[in-house]
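Hey team,

Sharing the RCC1-like domain-containing protein run so nobody has to redo it. Sequence (521 residues) first:
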Amino acid sequence: SHLGQSRAARPLPFGRAYCLFSWGANSYGQLGQGHAIDSGRPAAVSLASGISDCTSGIISNTDLEAKLESTSGDVLDMSSGQTSVSTSGQASVSTSGQTSVSTSGQTSVSTSGQASVSTSGQTSVSTSGQTSVSTSGQTSVSTSGQASVSTSGQTFGSISVVIGGGHSIILGGELRTPLSCGWDQCGQAGGSGGLLFAPAPSLAAAPRIVAASAGWDFSLLLDADARLWALGNNSRGQCGVGGGGGARVCRQPALVPIPAEVGDEGIAVCAAGMRHGVACTRRLGRVVTWGCGRRGQLGHSGGPEPGLVESLSEPAVAAAAGTGHTAVLTAGPGRLFVWGDNRHGQCGRPPELGIAFDRPVPLGALAADGAEQTADQGAEQTADPIVSLHSGWSHLLLLTCSGRLLSWGRCDLGQLGRSGDAWRPLPVATPAGWRVLQAASGSEHSACLVAAGAKRLLLCWGWNEHGICGADSDAEFLSEPRPVARIPADPAAVFAGGGCTFALLSEHQGEPDFELVGNSV
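Structure output:
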């Protein structure tokens, strides 16, 4: 099967200095830089002293930040795929007419074709590999029984950043407890309320967390025993507790009540939309949703309480969610289903055919040009298998095995990074010969990590207020991918959510630390 051609993600090399940088909107301190001032260019996250001892090499490297003042930016000729150096530090992109698209998901990877969510080596729903996804981003994955996580991107080693509407959570590696920063008014960051300007171990009281996802003002936490917890705003039932009629706010992690018919399967994947949650069970891949369902995004009529999406008969191995839509990827060939809000074509159908769908809509297999294929057209042989799925508030991205990025949905702020029908998954405009290694999506912007020869580059596009795209541009939005300016070191991973972006940087330049093999990174 398509999803069976995977192998585990390589961990980030030990003994190498990594630094976590961030940029974009920061009115709540969600960038973790120690202040609440927007940052239009990458700056180091303020990790406390000693944090580097437990994060598999991530450090707050002030030397790297200092290089920002002396590093020239790369000017990329997007029409030819060539890279040249500029002394001005300005980034420019040409319009080549090439189109491509992306979604906002994540990838979960497995070893020997088997994925596990917990450190105890429990197997996930798919025996042939697994892809898990989320909106503001989260991936739960495991290699050889060790859980690794990712926010709005793929799994890299075991470091992850989950970003919500105004808060961020850093987890993974050998970090003893997740670090959080930003908006904590409803307890979504695990603190005592107010604002957290620098990452702090506010979730120390939570069970051992191996994966997470963040919505507008709530968070979902998956522990090592495959139990799902929630905290933050519960006014729409988004924490899954009391159906919206219980506690309005969950300031301490509350166990999400899974429907009795699920039994003791446990949870393999979770995803947070703006005000609703999604989970996929570990063994049978059943989909559970809860919270706000005004646009049909829950896929069931049971109200805000957690309920099964019974109309989905195929086992799901990945999930993503936006403001009013939900997307899942199923096992086997990897079919994509979307339901809920379709005003911007999120469900892969023209809005004139329906502005909302309350049952899963299959997008089918995708040909090389992004067009949907049917079985009698040989889709099983020609389709490009999906590696990861990502979702912003109203747009989606998906990354394929060949390293192409497709996008669809809302496009008025350049979120899709291409022209053409907004409702149809089509390739994002990246230069010929460049391979997308990872993708991520914020609320209204997108980002990806590409391999351009032996060099790795970060590209961003979409909503650019607050300097979200990091492209040294005052434009309100960028309609095509632009290089992130003044990156002081080699990018290893990118994470996005809300109105900001995080990147893991390494001083190493040269061959990538990971490679795309089959459907894994």
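The radius of gyration is 20 Å.

Ping me if you want the raw files.
A.
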